[in-house]
Amino acid sequence: QVQLQESGPGLVKPSQTLSLTCTVSGGSVLTTHYAWTWIRQAPGKGLEWIGLITYEGSTHYNPSVEIKSRTSISWDTSKNQFFLRMTSVTPEDTARYYCARTADYFCTGYGCLGEFDSWGQGTQVTVSS
Fold first, then answer.
1. Which residues touch 87 (CB under 8 Å, ≥6 apart)?
2. Residue 18 carries which DSSP code?
């Protein structure tokens, strides 16, 4: 059974870069037809899809300018990890960040749909000086 675990700093200062790692165990990020996703939930708000990297290494991002212009997702297949990097953070980026495995995904220029079949526990990130 695949398991995911997020890690990274819990506190980031405004204008700095947020970097998170998701470590996958019990399965490979190269497993055919899966994608690896970052999602966040700000206090009092719903889930927000940030983006994903597919088993082929292709990336897709939330098309909102506010996210797409500041975000990159990458991976290290030798370590079975994938990463989130978000630049120029503001307090509005304060949220619980989750990584998830996505099955049956379909992506267009407007984003991606799929089934999040495994989730990490999430990691809280606070942006504050």
1. 17, 18, 70, 71
2. E
